[in-house]
Amino acid sequence: MRKVGLFAVLSALLCGASAASAEDFIKGVYLQSEELCAQAKKESVKSLIDSGTLVLSARGIDSAEYSCEFVNIIRAKRFPAWAVTALCHEPGHMFPDTLSILELSPTQLDVASVRSVDDEGPQTDNAGSYYLCDGVALP
């Protein structure tokens, strides 16, 4: 009985911390360059997604045939950063990823991934800089 009670308390604390952290998580739509943001304003985010461009938002990372859903978000206490667990999907393949997202400025995020990706392979790399696209919304 004690183990069940302790587990319930720890689960509640972790869920509470995760939910509270999600409240101050990133807002808006982010693309991997300011030029892509300008293109999204001119055309649409959907056209960029359809062309294979990665789009980062609070729900995850999306592209035409690729997506990562953020399933756990934990805010760092000493840095403007989050540790994120994601479930990612490519055609015929699902895998986990763990990301760190660091706020470099109010309009720029740096994303690092523990998943190793071959530069010449067909895998998608979640890592890199992402820029806030003001006035752009997800489809």
Tell me the overall shape: globular
List the secondary-structure elements in sequence, H or E. HEHHEEEEEEE
Give me the number of helical elements.
Answer: 3
CA-atom Rg in angstroms: 17 Å
Number of strands: 8
* Strand order of the biggest β-sheet: 1-8-7-6-5-4-3-2
Helix content bin: 25-40%
Structural class: alpha+beta
Biggest β-sheet, characterized? 8 strands, antiparallel
Give an overview in words.
With 139 residues, this protein is of the alpha+beta class. The protein has one domain. It is 27% helix and 38% strand. It contains 3 helices and 8 strands, in the order αβααβββββββ. It has an 8-stranded antiparallel sheet with strand order 1-8-7-6-5-4-3-2. The protein starts with a helix and ends in a 7-residue tail after the last strand. The N terminus is likely disordered.
